[in-house]
Design a protein that fits this description.
- By secondary structure, the protein is α/β, with parallel strands linked by helices.
- The chain has three domains: 165 residues, 3-Layer(aba) Sandwich (Rossmann fold), CATH 3.40.50; 161 residues, NADPH-cytochrome p450 Reductase, Chain A, domain 3 (Up-down Bundle); 154 residues, Rossmann fold (3-Layer(aba) Sandwich).
- The strands form five sheets. Strands 1, 2, 3, 4, 5 and 6 form a six-stranded parallel β-sheet that branches.
- β15 and β16 form a beta hairpin.
- α7 packs across α9, α10 packs antiparallel against α11 and α20 crosses α21.
- The longest helix has 18 residues.
- The chain is globular.
């Protein structure tokens, strides 16, 4: 039997969504599909495949998603010759954001590598752009149409009925990919009675997240640890447009272990009122115990040993009902379960090619939540199996750690911008995790925060390595930890100098950690000029003309060049919009001017720094 292989690499879920959509489109054309994440696939099998579709996202500054790293390393082996993939048809669709410097970089380099290895492109690579008025679907729709047409020409055995003959959706709608089993509540309630509160919570969170088939990442299911908040301090003034907080946490489960430059992922709590409203809207029993499993289980999983979990707990810890927007397919499935004719017609219009832009305006642009959408279409009675399959998973949020464990042995600190915005239709929206953290009371010991520690993009520098740090706004977060670490090191050994460029709007409004930086820049601190360091601040709104970190860098170009000449490493952190590109451009200008070389040579200089691990960027949107 001919099986079409669809491989995806996702960071936020968009690539998985596209891969699942392509899988559905193939199944509707009676084409058998094997859908896998790249970290589930053995790359040595690639030459044996009859046709492969890749859906890959680009993260950060042109980085591959975590799930693609091993696969990509395998593909880069020199032993794979020009004929390794000879004759294997493939297609690549990328997801990116054109506001980033390296737009869709992963899809472009994957496409080139597959071609270099002898693969044959079924269609020209597709590039989805988050910045397009209709999002990535603007390019996905025409690309997928071309894909099925060309695949039918190259491999007609895949689409036996041709590219346009599709199975009726009414047949497929009876086949959700998950099945739910209900259990005796009394038996399950007694199961947890002999365990400690912390163990019980860990089991429940882990159970809720591992029973979400294909949604929860394996290393993000059972929490790495539980934290309690011990400090919640505002870093900005009350009249500042931003609300930036300093949070301090202590572990309640086991000793903390992390390095500077690491990242803390937090599973946010959901508003209990919203969770209850969702359960009531969907006519569910919050106290029932359930297990969720794939509908098509192989023999290996036939005797699945999932621990039943209370339905409300499952929704609370695994289904993002009140912050994430549903995908397009959610509206398609809703249309089959709408009993009011006008609602069914509107939902069908939304998922039609003609209604795509209106759906994007109604849904993604407005950041409508699952709960809001269900409340807008009250006649829809969607089975819980479909809700489990289609509601976006509750994802951990990642934050750069802003402390050093050497300075704070059993603590971890975060610097968090409490996100809020107004939609095009003037609706007030808040970031789920940041607003939840901001509302936590350190005096309330009952709220425990599930968390995981992970390596970030900023490696730990040796004490002897000179540093040039650039971190405007909350980009200063990891560098607070860097300075704390080096201050501890300097008590016993000589350390290399650090210069730090910080930027904010106003000296009086959002000069984050003002006292901290100044204390380290005086009295022979690690930022002091006496130690060869320096601390320079750009206040962008305190004068008629805007002043940013790159302007301050140019003012101190000689100092920057001197440190670079001594082998300094560059670390840049902050907003992913224009800042990284503007700062990199300033470095190129400084190298060109101070070293007396062309701009092209300066660009090559920066690339050489990158290659030897001395130029690092950690940016977030």
């Amino acid at each position: 039997m001919h099986k079409l292989l669809i491989l995806y690499a996702t960071q936020t879920g968009n690539a998985l969504d596209v891969a699942e959509r392509l899988s559905r489109e193939a199944e509707r054309r009676a084409c058998s599909v094997n859908l896998l994440s790249l970290d589930q696939y053995d790359p040595c099998l690639l030459p044996q495949e009859q046709a492969v579709i890749f859906v890959v996202s680009t993260t950060g500054q042109g980085d591959t998603p975590d799930s693609m790293k091993v696969f990509w390393r395998y593909l880069l082996q020199r032993s794979l010759g020009r004929h390794w993939l000879k004759g294997v048809p493939y297609a690549v669709f990328g997801l990116g954001d054109s506001s980033y410097q390296k737009y869709n970089f992963v899809a472009k380099k994957l496409d080139k590598r597959l071609m270099d290895l002898g693969g044959i492109a079924i269609v020209e690579r597709g590039l989805g752009d988050d910045q397009h008025p209709s999002g990535y679907e603007a390019s996905l729709d025409p690309w997928s149409s071309s894909l099925w047409r060309m695949l039918n020409m190259i491999k007609p055995q895949f689409l036996s009925n041709g590219p346009d003959v599709v199975i009726q959706d009414t047949i497929l709608i009876d086949q959700p990919k998950v099945q739910i089993t209900y259990h005796n509540s009394e038996n399950e309630d007694s199961r947890f009675s002999s365990t400690s509160d912390l163990t019980c919570l860990s089991i429940q969170v882990g159970s809720a997240r591992t029973v979400h088939p294909g949604k929860a990442l394996s290393d993000r299911s059972t929490p790495g640890c539980f934290l309690k908040m011990v400090k919640n301090l505002p870093l900005t003034t009350s009249n500042c447009v931003k609300d930036v907080r300093h949070f301090e946490f202590e572990s309640v489960s086991h000793a903390l272990q992390y390095e500077i430059g690491d990242v803390l992922e937090i599973l946010p709590g959901q508003d209990s009122i919203a969770v209850d409203a969702f359960i009531q809207r969907c006519n569910l029993d919050p106290d029932s115990f359930i297990t969720v499993s794939p509908r098509e289980m192989d023999d290996h999983n036939a005797h699945d040993s999932r621990i039943p979990v209370k339905l409300r707990t499952f929704v609370e810890y695994s289904m993002d009902v009140a912050s994430a927007s549903p995908r397009r397919y959610f509206f398609e499935v809703m249309s089959f379960f709408a009993t009011a004719e006008h609602e069914r017609e509107r939902l069908k219009y939304f998922v039609s090619p003609e209604g795509r832009d209106d759906l994007y305006q109604y849904n993604q642009k407005e950041r409508r939540t699952v709960l809001e959408v269900l409340e807008d279409f009250p006649s829809v009675k969607m089975p819980f199996e479909w809700l489990v399959q289609l509601v976006p998973p509750l994802k951990p949020r990642a934050f750069s750690i802003s402390s050093s464990q050497s300075a704070h042995p059993n603590q971890v600190h975060l610097t968090v911008n409490v996100v809020s915005w107004t939609t095009p239709y003037k609706r007030k929206k808040k970031g789920l995790c940041s607003s939840w953290l901001a509302a936590l009371d350190p005096c309330d010991a009952g709220t425990l925060v599930p968390a995981w520690f992970h390596k970030g993009l900023l490696p730990v520098p040796a004490p002897s390595l000179p540093l040039i740090l650039v971190g405007p706004g909350t980009g200063c977060a990891p560098f607070r930890g860097f300075l704390e670490e080096r201050a501890v090191q300097s008590r016993t050994n000589a350390t290399a100098p650090i210069i730090f460029f910080f930027g904010c709007c106003n000296e009086k409004g959002d000069f984050l950690y003002h006292d901290f930086w100044l204390s380290h820049s005086q009295n022979k601190g690690v930022l002091s000029e006496a130690k060869g360091g320096g601390f320079y601040v750009a206040f962008s709104r305190d004068q008629p003309q805007k002043v940013y970190v790159q302007h301050k860098m140019r003012e101190h170009s000689k100092r920057i060049w001197n440190l670079l000449s001594e082998g300094a490493a560059v670390y840049i952190a902050g907003s992913s919009t224009k800042m990284p590109a503007d700062v990199t451009s300033a470095f190129e200008e400084i190298i060109s001017k101070e070293n007396g070389v062309s701009r092209e040579d300066a660009v090559r200089w920066i690339r050489a720094l990158e290659r030897c691990g001395k130029y690092h960027i950690e940016a977030w949107s």
